[in-house]
Write a structure and sequence with these properties.
The chain contains 3 helices and no strands. By secondary structure, the chain is an all-alpha fold. It has one domain. The model has no long low-confidence stretch (mean pLDDT 71). Keywords: Membrane, Transmembrane, Transmembrane helix.
Length: 76
């Protein structure tokens, strides 16, 4: 799949949006525990960054969009 197609870009934006909205879905006591110390804050930030990169890569490389040239058997 060509990572520069509009569909791929939309999926990356969706992944970023989920990473931004995701922490709001976590209950407050859990977030307070995760961010209690500077070391935990750094660990949480690093883990969030790794998850963002991994999710974006997986989304772009493995999810096909109906109607895209790749999904219809066209050139990659």
């Amino acid at each position: 799949m060509n990572p520069h197609t509009p569909e791929s870009f939309d999926r990356v934006l969706l992944g970023i949006a989920l990473m931004v909205v995701g922490p709001a879905l976590v209950p407050a006591p859990i977030m307070a525990t995760l961010t209690a110390t500077p070391l935990r804050q750094a660990g949480t930030a690093i883990l969030g960054g790794v998850l963002l990169v991994a999710f974006s890569y997986w989304t772009v490389s493995h999810v096909s969009v109906r109607g895209s040239p790749t999904a219809e058997g066209g050139e990659n």
